[in-house]
What does this fold into?
Amino acid sequence: MALVLNEKYNNSDKTVVFYKNRFLKLFPIYWTILVLTLLVSFVSYIVLNKGGSLEYIIKNIDNLGFFNLYILFSNIFLIGEDLLMFLGFDGNSIVFAKSFSDISIPLYKFIVVPQSWTLSLEIMFYAIAPYVAIKNYGYYWE
It folds into this structure.
């Protein structure tokens, strides 16, 4: 990533291009998979009465109150999905889960595309990479 940033995106004007390229790399594909997953889950829920994560979300979303906005946001924009892997609802509040067997509602089950939590980490990396990997620090060897 440092090589790409230093060769292709080596000034502040190109940093915006870097972010646009990363956005186009991640979000169109993710949103396509998200919509397809929701469609398949919806059809499965209607036809087979089994909707996987969609069924779980429908049954439990009312229990979370205002926190369901965070879940919706993280499922659409990926930001914060990785945090859902460690949180749960214990009946009264959102808590860090020591063991999901002790939690009545684990929040990782609200991630519609379960593998996408890794993209949340990738987005955080891309957010800081242009500021960490650029060669203007004086110790770059050519």
User: Anything to note?
Assistant: The chain is about 60% helix and 5% strand. The two ends are 17 Å apart (CA to CA). The chain has one domain: 2-132. The CA atoms of residues 41 and 51 lie 5 Å apart.
